[in-house]
Every structure is written in structure tokens, then in C-alpha cells.
Amino acid sequence: MSKSRRLCHYSAVNIDGHQPRREKRASWRFDPRIGHDEQTSGRVYGNEPKFARGHMTRREDPVWGASAARGNTDSMHMTNAVPQMQPFNAGIWLGLEDYALDHARDDAMKICVITGPVLREQDPVRFGVQIPVNFWKMVAFIHDETGEPCATGYTLSQEGFLREEEFVFGQHETAQVPLSAIEAMAGVSFAPELRRLDPLERVQEARPRPLRRFGQIRFR
Questions:
Q1: 83 bridge partner residues
Q2: In which band, very low, low, confident or very high, does the pLDDT at 159 lie, cut at 50, 70 and 90?
Q3: Integer Cα distance of 91 and 200 in angstroms
Q4: Which residues touch 194 (CB under 8 Å, ≥6 apart)?
Q5: Does the pLDDT of residue 170 top 50, yes or no?
Q6: Which of 177, 183, 173, 169 is nearest to 132 (CA)?
Q7: What is d(CA 183, CA 190) in angstroms, rounded to the nearest whole number?
Q8: Which of 91, 168, 204, 205 holds its CA 20 to 30 A away from the CA of 69?
Q9: Nearest-CA neighbor of 135 among 162, 113, 154, 117?
Q10: Is a pLDDT exceeding 80 seen at residue 171?
Q11: Planar angle of CA 156, 32, 52, nearest 5 degrees
């Protein structure tokens, strides 16, 4: 958690595709591990033009195995929510975990996902809260074709469509980026062993790769 922003730096989850469960959606609640005043809630959330509580870890991701019920309720803590516009968390971004599971090695079907906002000093303030306009995600798993571990990084941004005269987001775009780029923008640090598994870290061209379809993702 960021104490000054009252938002998470990142949220992490392990997923076991062999043990999915269904749980009824719980209500949003304060995380009991820290104070209520250290978590973002209140009037920033609501119907447009206010913001939705955007999950960093998807609610479905930790809902598996014997701890499915706990994973379901844990995902509904305020510490896992960041203000987002209603149509923001959709498209390729929303389906990355499912796509990775479809390509995870069949005898494992396990992936690790870390997601977070980019917290910048220049983020706009709306309803008394600084609103992140960029988000990132790291997905690691054993690829079914190669049998080797891989780690890929992604960003989702609406910054280019943010108008200063009114807070309006336009069409958003998911891009595949090197993990080192996420480290630089988000102030996080991945292990060197993880960065070495990223195919974009092994090529000269380290620019973002905008994604229009899942098939454009580079795993090797």
C-alpha cells in the first residue's frame, strides 16, 4: 500500500486452473489489517462521473481450491480497489489471465499475476482523490508449447485521452511492454531471474507493443 495515496502499489495472486470454484460475489469492505483512514473509499466511488472500484486482482482469480471462499472475500477488500472509469477494465486487459491459462502447461495450469497502478505526482485529483491513469500487469507461467517458464508485462493507459477541461476517458489500449519498463514507471522491482524470462527483454526493440488481439502477445 501507498500510505500517501491510500491505494495499493500492487496486488498479487496465484491461480490454479485445475481447481476453479464458484463463489457468490461479496460486498466491498475495509481491509482489517490497516486503518480505515489508510484506505480509499467514500465519495470518489459511485455512478459516473464518479469512479468504479476497479479490482487489481480479479475477483475470480483467487477463487479456487479449499480457500476459494477466503480468496473471494479477500479480493473485495478496499486495498484491492483503485478508482477506474466503468468501461476501463475490459477487453484484452480483462482476459489476460484466461488467455494465459489457455496456454499454460496442461499438467500444471498454474499462473502468477501481479497488477498495480502507476502512482504519479501529476495524477489528476477528482473528488478529493488522485486518480491513477496508467496500470500494469505481470503474468508468469509455464508455456504449454515450450515447456519453459515465461514472464510477460502489460500496461493499460487512458492518459492520452484525458482532456484537461473535463475528465473524460476515451478508447483504452493494452500494450505488451518489457518488465524493465514496468519497473521504471511503477517503482517496483522484479527479480533478475524473472526479467530473464521476458521475451521483450531479449530483443533490441524495447518499445511497447500495442495489442489488438491476444494472438499478438509474444511469449518467446
A1: 53
A2: low
A3: 22
A4: 138, 140, 151, 179
A5: no
A6: 169
A7: 7
A8: 91
A9: 117
A10: no
A11: 35
| Encoded amino acid at 4, one letter | S
Contact 136/157 with Cβ under 8 angstroms?
Answer: no
Distance of CA 69 to the CA centre of its chain: 21
Cα 101 from Cα 58, distance rounded (Å): 14
Q: What is the residue whose three cell numbers read 500487469?
A: 137
pLDDT at position 165 is 45
Amino acid at 107: D
DSSP code string of the chain:
-BTTTTB-S-EEEEEETTSB---PPPPPB--TTS-GGGS--GGGBSSTTSBEEEESS-TTTT-BGGGHHHHHHHTTBGGGEEEE-TTTS-HHHHHHHHHHHHHB-TTT-EEEEEEEE---TTPPEETTEE---EEEEEEEEEBTTT-SEEEEEEEEE-GGG--SSS------EEEEE-HHHHHHHH-----HHHHTT-GGGGSS--S-EEESSGGG----
pLDDT of residue 89: 59
Evaluate the omega torsion of the peptide bond into residue 199 and state whether it is cis, within 30 degrees of 0. no
Half-sphere exposure for 57 (CA within 13 Å, toward CB): 27
Residue type, 6: R
Q: What pLDDT shows up at residue 163?
A: 52
